[in-house]
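<discrete_fold_record>
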Amino acid sequence: MKTFFLSSPIGQEGSEVRKISDLLWEYVIQPVCKKLNYQPVRADKITNAGSITHQVIQHLTESDIVVFDVSDQNPNVMYELGIRHSIGKPAVLLIRDGARIPFDVKD
């Protein structure tokens, strides 16, 4: 099965950031992945033992598709986008309507 990784702000349980991230995950990412036969992963959904940082980097470097929600210019998302760029693999940027695309990644 092809793999899909979502890099997005996650936030604390119950926070506005988490609510938005969960809505995106449940109503957009999961249905599209199911329809296209991709296995979706988000950092907080990783349940394997070991270093979460190592596992996130592994997903960033090995996943067939990686989507980055740059709506809030979250530092972790931007860092993860840099990792994906550094290995020369494509990255898909996602942004909420009305949010500004950071000038250094909009191309």
Notes: The chain has a mean pLDDT of 92. The longest strand covers residues 2-7. The CA atoms of residues 71 and 95 lie 4 Å apart. The domain at 2-94 is CATH 3.40.50.450 (Rossmann fold).
